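mind reviewing this fold:
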Amino acid sequence: MNRVGKLALVAGILAIALAVPIATAHLIFLYQASVTVKPVTLPVVFLTGPEASEVGLSLSNKSNPQISLTIPVTNSSGTYVYQALEVKAIVGSPYLYVASCSYTPGPALTSVELIVYPTTGSPSSPAGTITITPSSSGCTASNSVQLTAGTIYYIDFLVQPSLPIPYGTSSGTLTIYFGLSNESGTVTVPAP
């Protein structure tokens, strides 16, 4: 083989060697996957209501909401606070309940009712009522209220003290932690 033939052979081998990586660089591998994730949307959102400032309502820890408000309790049979808290149901039909509560010493209370009703309705026809019985040793709560997605609710408070309230009784603090049950489950996201 002469020198030109050898160079042509080397050039041919070199061209093939360079063409193989270029051709394989255009190979695309497709994978199909299915991923199951828990929705990031909370089933409800808690907001301060239109009358929240009247009772100094504060709302914290929105994922496990804790509310605090100051309700002036007098020697009347009950104190009613309108539209102090709002709950917006986003998805599903969760049940709203009081997960836990505590009461620091103050005037003895017979009960505190949480009246839950749609903003388009009235407290006289509520979606439900949650009753809290506070005491210095703790408190208990009964009932739950089912919420409907796409609906905004007000929560009113009816505080009923044990009468008479002795002169010089200090203020008490009722702390309420809300909970939700029957939340929407997982969602399957298909691959693109």
